[in-house]
Every structure is written in structure tokens, then in C-alpha cells.
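FAQ: What does a ligand-bound record look like?

Like this one, built around flavin-adenine dinucleotide:
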Amino acid sequence: MTQKKGIIIGAGPAGLTAAYELLEKTDIKPIIYEISNEIGGISRTIKYKGYRMDIGGHRFFSKSDTVMNWWLKIMPLERVEEPDLTITYQNQTREITNLAGQPQASKDEDLVMLVRNRKSRIFYLRKFFDYPLKLGKQTLINMGLVRTLRVLFSYLKVRLYPLPEEKNLEHFFINRFGKILYLTFFKSYTEKVWGIPCSEISAEWGAQRIKGLSISKAIQHIIKGFVGDTSSSIKQKNVETSLIERFLYPKLGPGQLWEEVARQIQERGGEIHFNSPVKKLHTDGDRITSIEIYNTETGLGEYVEGDFFFSTMPIKDLIRGLEPEVPSEVKAVSEGLIYRDFITVGLLVEKLIIKDEAQGEKLIKDNWIYVQEADVMLGRIQIFNNWSLSLVKDTSKVWLGLEYFCYENDELWQKTEEDMAQFAIDELVKIGFIEKTSDVLDYTVVKVPKTYPAYFGTYDQFYKVRNYLDRYENLYLIGRNGMHRYNNQDHSMLTAITSVENIRHGIKDKSNIWQVNVENEYHEEVQGTKEKVSKIDALVETAKQFVIYILTGGIATVVDVTIFALLVQSGLSYVTALFSSFIFGVSTNFFLTRSLVFGVYWRNWSAQYAVFILISLNSLFANLGLLKLFIDDWGWNAIIARIASAACVAFISFSVHKWYTFSPHNRLLALNLQRTAVNPKKI
Ligand SMILES: Cc1cc2nc3c(=O)[nH]c(=O)nc-3n(C[C@H](O)[C@H](O)[C@H](O)COP(=O)(O)OP(=O)(O)OC[C@H]3O[C@@H](n4cnc5c(N)ncnc54)[C@H](O)[C@@H]3O)c2cc1C
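The answer part, i.e. the structure of the complex:
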């Protein structure tokens, strides 16, 4: 019997993972066709005169056990001083040896993963701001009193009166951070990345990129930082992606890992063909039958038949290459898909003149810096010395990556290498990182097309393309451009892993592949464990909500009692004072509970407020009833009875509010608008 063939388009993380998984779990032979002569796609490492450059600065972290294990199986952790080094993620702490089933360090001392402490800041007003934003002393000094107050007021305003509908990314940001913070720290950088106003970008991008990060989350993180919770582990699952503190990094850059994967694939009988752009895909009914390649070295074309086809090439190119041609409606959507392109300028400089006061003359410690300044086009600066010194041939120099986002038809993209380098150098001088052009010792410019699949253009009709392509039962769209999804390496890998699993188990439906990077929790193999973890998570979450509910109730009581005392002192009758102070107290309670505990907003806030008051009044009667029971019927001491009744009523009112007033699933009146609160993932 002839061996089945898995044809894979592209030797990036998704394609290589598919090949590796086919070898690992099936009898299917993987054959990769790659347009370039390099391994790793966007995750490759650029090599320049002994220096290495990472396109974009790739952090290796994942919420998925499968991916973490996968990486560490290919490249073990570096040998470190502490003999008992453990790595913690998904609430599990394991010895490295157990984690990957590998010895602690590789025989090849370069083939290792480093553990990097993340440091990245925002550069704005020619000053550094912590990222994620810390509302600490330095931020306040940098922003100044007036701006700080404006930030606070606009944040409070949006907590009380959120925008009812998040129609675009601007709404998404404003609802989470307030307008001023959005204008200060998010607008300019995001618009540099996408090249259009935030108001024209789908809110879905924010949901994917800034999953659940909110000010309240940032505040929790700061507090955890104070108690030392984030310093000693690579904690994944319960840390929002944008707050992760430690990550893995291949010693010689991300491409090193993928080059090793490619080596193993070839060693085990898989094939990788370079300089082989896939130009056409031939179909017969619901199946892909063959692909057509044009070898750019030999100038020869070739037909290759296969049983399964994995595509990581941009969907637009795939649709263009399908034979027979696709329906015009699908083609129109695919032609309207937009990609943002990327230029990275590697600069070797003598030194940076920008310093951290606390560190004196030393190089600043950032891995990367977001440049929020609107007077330069520069988007981000990578300091490769701080990713891995092995990327830097002469470590007495500073090896930088200056990142620009643009379109292929932009003036920037059209610049010659020399002009582009000079442009980047001028901007670096302008923002005060280096003094003059002659501080730059060498440069290289790399243009990378289609780095960011955009969530605008015809993206809102993307489902038409997806539905059309999913009908080909042996075609698997995987990875980033392959799915037109803002997928990181781990997501890209998981789409490949899920596809191979589907083939193994004869699953034709592709929806589990599309679910990767959509749901909050990735699909893991052991469903039972997942359910157990989710239930525990939900319980912990409810307990947290309850504690904050009691605290907000306490604040409301203080407000109530203070106003009551003031009113009585000013000569008002007890009854009038009680009525007025109750209104203040219960209103405080309502707003705090809504924004800090549950984060669920009805479109009609007054209806939600009325329901809240009704339930609060009921609590009064419940208290009376319980007191009667405890004191009159059971003969308890009055104080103990009062404490017990307060506890019972707190619990009952919390439950009723959770299940009704602030339930994210309350469809009775179809009034709910969900917002992020304590743990946005859970609502
Ligand atoms: C600036 C930036 C920063 C990033 N940072 C991170 C990070 O910190 N952590 C992280 O995990 N991820 C990060 N990513 C994402 C990561 O780079 C991608 O998720 C990953 O590379 C996608 O893998 P892929 O295989 O789907 O696609 P690609 O890496 O794009 O690989 C696709 C491959 O297909 C080839 N190809 C295209 N067309 C054809 C064709 N017609 N025929 C044959 N071959 C073809 C390409 O040459 C390429 O090699 C970042 C990306 C960018 C742009």
C-alpha cells in the first residue's frame, strides 16, 4: 500500500507543527513547500554578519500545556544555577525534567530555552511609562496632576456610564480604560499598527489582543506584584496575556526552535522543499487533488498530488490559486481582505544616550518599547541584548530592531534600504535615544509582507470564505494568514495539532480548528480535567466576588452612616435623615457592586438600579424575619443573632444579585450589557 501524503504549504510554525505531528501520530508522510529559502516564517531569525534579529520579538508562552510541553521537548530549558528550578503554569508547578520528559539541559549548549523576565514600557512625552500601566508615583509624575485627574474622571465616568454598544475598537478601549487613558496610551500606537483610525477597526481585534485586560485587572496585578506573586514562576493560565511576567526564549532567537523542528522532520523522513511557491490548488468535488508549484530556482513547474492539504499561505492567495475558480461572491470577500506589512530596521549602535536614572550608565533593561509619540512613525523598539546576549556578536554594542508598520504600496515600503535606514536613524535621534547618525555602526533592513491579517476591509464577511473553503474535506486552513486570524505561535500550532487530531479520528467538521484563539480556554486533551479546573475556577471566582461584595457593602454603609450623622446634626428628623442616607448608601452600593464586583450593565441602568433597590429592601425584611426566628423562637443572644442574620442576608442578597440583577445570562428582559470586572473571562 502506498504511503499517504500530507502536503503542507509554508514552513512557518503552523506548517512545521503539522509536519511534526503527522510524523509523530500518523503514517502520513509530510511534504512541505516553502516559497522562500528560510525556515520559520514570521517567526524566523534573521542572520546578519554574526548578529541575529527577531522579527517582532517573539515571546514563547502559552496557556496550553500541549504547546509548552511541545516547545520544551524540542529545546529544554537552559541549565540554571538553582538545582531545583521549576516552571509554573496552569496552576501546576513541575520540575523541568518531568515537564518535558527530557534532561534538564540539552547536549548542544546553544539548543536551549532561556527564561526571560519581561520588561517593556511605553515611550510617550519623551518619558517612559510602565507597561502594563502602573498607576504608581512615577506614572503620576510623568503625566502631571491635570492629566492624571482627567484620566481618573474619564475612567470613573465610563465605569458609571459605559458606552452601550462596542461597535469598534475605539469603543472597546474607552469602555475599558476611559477616554483620556485611551487617547494617551492606546490610540497612537494602535493606529500606527493598523494605519487607520481605531473607530474603523473591529472591536473583535481588541477582544483577541487585549483579552480581558482592564484597569481593575491591572490593579490586582500591581497588588500581586507587591506581595511577590509574579516574580518566581512562568505563570500562564491565570495571568492575562498582556500581564505575563516571564517567558521562554530560544537562545539564538525564535528561528532556532523552528530550524531544529525542521531538522527533526527531515531526519524522520519528512520533506521540505524551498523556493517552491504554491501557485494553484486543483479540486475535484469536495476534495483538493493536487497543487501546482513553480520552482523559483529551476524555473520549472510541478504538479504534486496528495491526500491531505494544510495551508498556511495567505487566504487571499489561496483563493486566487483555486481551480476551478471560486464563486464571485467569495472571491470579492477574499480580495477585500487587508494585510498590514512590516519593516524592521536592525541598527547596531555604540550606546544609547537614554538612561534609567536608577541604573546609571547601564543599558536600559527593556526587551521592547512601545513608541506612542505621534511625531514619529516608529512603532516599537526591540533591544536584542535584553532578549538574549547570544543574538549580539559584540556585546559591548547595542543591537536594536526598529519596527515600522505600513502597507506594501506606502512610501515607506518603497524606500531603498539605505533611505529606510537613514529614516529610522533620524527618528531615533529625534526621540533622544541616540545623539547623532554617526553613533550607528551598521544597519540592515528587512521587509516582511502580510504580517498582520486585518480585522477590517471585508473581514466582517469572512465567514463566506471560511464556509466555502471548509467544504473541501481534505483541506486544513491553519496558522495566522492561513486562517486570517491574529494568531500567535501557540495558536498557530494548536490549529495544526487539532487538524492532525481530526485526521486521526476521522473528524470532518472543522469548527474545533476555528475555535482555537476564540474561546477563553484552549481545547486541551483531557476534557474531564478541564471541567474540574473550570468548576474550581468558578468557585474561586465567586468567592472573590463575594469578598469584594462585602467590602463594597462596607463602603456603602460608611457612606450611609456618615450622611445620616451629618443630616441629624444639621437638625433633620431621624426619619428624613434615614430615608436620605439610605438612598445615598444604596446608590453607592449599586454603582460599586455593578462596576467592581459583577461588571454587568443593563442597557437601561435605571431598571437595573430599581431591581437592585427592590432586592436590598427585601434584605431588610429578611433581616427582620431572621432576627425574630433567632431571638424569639430559638432564644439566641441579640448580638449573635444580629451577626448571624447579617451574614445570612449578605449571602442571600449576593446570590440573588448574582443570579438576577447582575447575571450575564439573564435573557428575561434582554437588557444585559456585559463589561469586564473582577475576572472578565468568567462573565
Ligand atoms: C511583529 C510580530 C510580533 C510577534 N510576536 C509574537 C510573540 O511574541 N509570540 C508569539 O507566539 N507569536 C508572535 N507573533 C506571531 C507569530 O509570528 C505567528 O503566529 C507565526 O509565525 C504564524 O505562523 P504561521 O506558520 O501560521 O505563519 P508564517 O509564520 O507566516 O509562515 C507561513 C509560511 O508560509 C510561506 N508561504 C506563504 N505563501 C506561500 C506559498 N504560496 N507557497 C509556499 N509557501 C508560502 C511563508 O514564506 C512562510 O514561511 C508575532 C508576529 C509579528 C508580526
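Follow-up question: can I read anything off the structure? Yes, for example: Residues 9-15, 33-36, 41-43, 56, 58-59, 277-278, 312-313, 317, 342, 451, 479-482, 487-490, 492 surround flavin-adenine dinucleotide (CB under 6 Å).
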